Structures are given as C-alpha cells and as structure tokens.
Amino acid sequence: MLKDYIEPVIPMILLSFLCSLLLMPFIKKIAKHIGAMDIPRDNRRIHTKPMPRLGGLGIFLGFLTGYIFFAPQDPQMLSILIGSFIIIITGICDDIKPLPALYKLIPQIFATLVIIFYGDILLNNISAFGFYIDFGIWAYPLTVFFILGAINAINFIDGLDGLSGGISSIYFLTIGLIAVITQNIGSLEVTISFLMLGATLGFLFHNFYPAKIFAGDSGSMFLGFIIAVIALLGFKNITLTSLVVPILILAIPIIDTLFAIIRRTLKGEPISKPDKLHLHHQLLSMGFGHRKTVLIIYIMNILFAIASIFYILKDRKLGIVIYVILFVIIVWLVTRTTIISSKKIIKDNIFKPSKK
C-alpha cells in the first residue's frame, strides 16, 4: 500500500524541518554578530533594510541532523557531505564579505571533483525521447559543468523572498513523490530529497515574504549543489529514468539563467554581473506584487513538475504536451519583456561596425 511508503519518510522530513526551523532565530543573531548582512546599497535590491544572510547554514544543519539518523554512511554520502561543507564555508565567507567570482568558482570546482572522484557520481550518459548518448571521457568535464550550472542557476534566481527556497522545495517534493508513487524510497537520492525538503521548508518559514532571513550565497549555492547531486544519482539509480527529467523540473531557473547569459553577452557585460532583468523582475515590472510574483513562478514550476511526473509514470504523451504548452507560454512572456534585451541593444551589438 502507498501508506507503507509514506510513513517512513515522515520522520525524515519532520526532523530536518524542526531543526532548520528552530535554528534560524539563532543563526539570524550569529549573522548580525559577524556582519553577514545584506545591505541595500543600490536600486537592484528589492528590500529596503539590512537583512541577515546565513539562511544556508540553517538548511545545512537541518540536513546534517537528518543525515545522522537516516542517511547511509558510505563513500557517496561522505563525498556529498565533504562537498557540501566546502560549498557552505565558501558561501559563509561570501555572505560576510562578497568574494570575487573566481574565488567562489575554485571551491565550487573542488567540491565537484570530490563528488566525481571520491563519490564516483558521474554524468556518464543521457537518454530522452528515444535518444541515447554515452559521453565517454567527456563525462568528467560535463559533470563539472552540470553541477556548476545548477549552483549558479539557483544563485541567479535567488532575488525575491521565498523564491529559491520555494523552487528548491518543489524540486525535492517532486523527486519524493516520484519515489513514493514508484515505490522506490530506499535510494540515496530519495533520502537526501526528503531531508532537504524538511530543511528547506524550515528555512522557508522564515524566508517567505516578508523575509526575516535570506539564504545568502551559502544557501543558494548549497541548494544548487544538492539539486545537481540528486539529479545525477537519480538518473543512475533509475529513480528519474533520465537526466532530462530533473532538468525539466528546474526549467524556470535554468531558462532564467540562459536568458541572463544571452542578455549580458549581447550587452558585452561579464556573465556574472548582476542586473535587474531576471524573470521575477519582469513580473514585478508588469505590476504584480512581491508575493504574487513568487507565487506565479511557483505555479509555473509546479506545472513543469507535474509534466515530469506524468512523463515518468509512462503517460509520456500528456507530459510532452504540457511541456510544449509551458514553453509556448515562456516564449510569449519573452516577447512581452526585456528579459533577453531591448531591440536597441541587440541592434547596436550585432550591427555595430567593428573598430580596427
């Protein structure tokens, strides 16, 4: 019965949730004490007063507590903990005093290498819609690229109260639902998903609008890192049947990141340069309030998650139809906004004569 598969996961979610929930007030005080504060110094910031930024530490501690009681102690799990610790320490340093992009990238790569060579977690192949590709030796750089991409996708979209935490929670919940429905709750990626779901919801209680604490880079990088690891484990253990599934669950932050890269490239700006043209900024400029904007993105993400669940449960045609409809909506949204760039910027950068 389905009940037999639901009951074992409830303690996992509750323990990590309560730990994260109860630790956040103390972490807020620690953040203020050590100066890990987000101070609005420019018009790119949505908030108007200084906010503590160490929410990621609370998520990590909630996850770590759950690991002690529920997760297996094997090389793969240890590699995930070591990699997570590297990411969290880097994020805390950045939350206290912003680091140059390169200073964050190097620890991210090192954490990824721990996952690859100690945990033997690798993007060996990909299959989707009847196609199969074996990457061979390219599996190593592609795994690094995939994990770094997930880290920065969550980091880019972390611009409104409750946004990164809510999107991540939808991801963890979707993986959990797929596991319960397919009666496959014993694998490592599923255990991690339920532990992270509880820990992230505990943080979200303090982070949803109006937020009392931000995830900071410690939170957004950690969430992206764990999301990537779950995706890699899931497709290898047949929980997700294909790596494409978790990618489509995260369609919104991935698309937003791609738009940001295109937009900044057209402007001739560094890819890492922040701006105020992300999807959530576009919705705000359309007149939606802070809370409504976040809820609209939640709904879009949930629809992609539902399509993914249909796809995995063998009703693939319906899943693909929902995917197509959602992508059409996104294309329409792009045409109504400046999320990629204004026509003037595109024209100036493409047709501007080169200087010799």
Topology (SSEs and partners):
Layout: H1 2-6, H2 9-34, E1 37-38, E2 51-52, H3 55-70, H4 75-96, H5 101-117, E3 125-128, E4 131-134, H6 139-157, H7 163-181, H8 188-207, H9 216-236, H10 244-249, H11 251-266, H12 279-285, H13 290-312, H14 316-335, H15 343-351
Antiparallel strand pairs: 1-2, 3-4
Helix pairs in contact: 2-3, 2-8, 3-4, 3-8, 3-9, 4-5, 4-9, 5-6, 6-9, 6-11, 7-8, 7-9, 7-13, 8-9, 13-14
Give a quick summary of the entry.
The chain is 69% helix and 3% strand. The chain is mainly alpha-helical and 356 residues long.
The total number of structural domains is 1
**What's the alpha carbon Rg, rounded to whole Å?**
20 Å
Order of helices and strands: HHEEHHHEEHHHHHHHHHH
Strand order of the largest sheet: 1-2
Residue windows where pLDDT falls under 50 for at least 5 positions? 343-356
Multimerization status: single chain
The rough form would be described as globular
Share of helix, binned: 55-70%
Give the mean pLDDT.
83
Proportion of strand residues? under 5%
Estimated structural class: mainly alpha
What would you note in describing this structure?
The chain has 356 residues and is mainly α. It has one domain (2-351). It is built from 15 helices and 4 strands. The chain has helices at residues 2-6, 9-34, 55-70, 75-96, 101-117, 139-157, 163-181, 188-207, 216-236, 244-249, 251-266, 279-285, 290-312, 316-335, 343-351, and strands at 37-38, 51-52, 125-128, 131-134. It has a two-stranded antiparallel sheet with strand order 1-2. A hairpin with a 2-residue loop joins strand 3 (125-128) and strand 4. Helix 4 (75-96) packs antiparallel against helix 5 (101-117), helix 5 crosses helix 6 and helix 13 (290-312) packs antiparallel against helix 14. The radius of gyration is 20 Å and the shape is globular. The protein starts with a helix and ends in a 5-residue tail after the last helix.
